[in-house]
Amino acid sequence: MAQSRWRGRWLLGSLLVISLAGCKVELHRSLSETEANQMLALLLVSGLQADKRADTAGMTVRIERSDFVRGVEVLRQHGLPRQKRASVEDVFPPGQLVSSPVQEQAKLIYLKEQRLERMLASLDGVMVAEVSIAQVPTDSAGRTTLPPGVAVFVKYSPEINMTQRMTDIRSLVHDSVPGVTPERISIVLQPADYRLPRASIDASTGAPTGPLTDRGRGLPTMTWGMVVAACIGLAAAAAVAWRRRASWVPRLRARVSKAS
């Protein structure tokens, strides 16, 4: 009897370990369908176990608890989730009272900055894009005394050689801000640091290979461990059931013999 209890506790512990191994935690929530799909695809390609769920606030992306830190870093290196940018409706909401010319000019400049940041963030490898357009001082007649100036800051993934895009970025800013000259455009490019040891990238699949990934088949090692643990648990359950059957079958036969 004591041995059966011990086996039952061992089986319960095995099932508990399996359930904890497959526990997922929230990575990001309140996402749109497009944002959730982009994140999920990137995590799966990187060899991480993730899924998405719909709730009242939008889509939620979940990941295995043991992969949480790596998942955050993978998304960060690809600039996800994207920063929310202001739209025309946000800057000039319908029904708003007419503001002063200075306020209107500040809003227009802010809207240009947001559009430039959105375009720069669309470049491959860009993680963070910030644009600041300096307000040009005017004289008593309302004429500008200096050409406008633009400052651009871009943080990019080390996987991309962003310095080759310097000319493209300068041209993009020059054509987006009227009156600006190339000399008045300041661009700072900063490569991001790896917060985790850089995983080796498999040339055929593009997925990182490391201690969490089975290189031969691209299936995470933790998944294989869960399968093995599940098989062991089922085998233990079958053994306990067989032991119990072996104990009550002779007693049942004896009762049938006495009754007959």
The CATH architecture term of the domain at 83-194 is 2-Layer Sandwich
Q: What general form does the structure show?
A: elongated
**What's the main sheet like?**
3 strands, antiparallel
The computed structural class is: alpha+beta
Spatial strand order of the main sheet:
1-3-2
Sequence of secondary-structure elements: HEHEEHHHEEHEEEH
- What's the end-to-end separation, in Å? 30 Å
Count of DSSP H/I helices: 7
Taken as a percent bin, the fraction of beta residues is: 15-25%
What does it look like?
This protein has helices at residues 2-21, 33-45, 68-77, 88-91, 101-121, 166-176, 221-259; strands at residues 24-31, 50-55, 58-64, 126-133, 150-156, 185-191, 200-201, 208-209. With 260 residues, the chain is an alpha+beta fold. The longest helix is centred in the C-terminal third of the chain and has 39 residues, at 221-259. The strands form three sheets. The chain has a three-stranded antiparallel β-sheet, with helices on one face. 45% of the residues lie in helices and 18% in strands. The model is unreliable at 200-222 (pLDDT under 50). Helix 1 packs antiparallel against helix 7. The protein has a domain at 83-194: ANL, C-terminal domain (GMP Synthetase, Chain A, domain 3, 2-Layer Sandwich), CATH 3.30.300. It has seven helices and eight strands, in the order αβαββαααββαβββα.
Provide a brief overview of the structure.
The chain has 260 residues and is of the alpha+beta class. It is built from seven helices and eight strands; from the N terminus they run αβαββαααββαβββα.
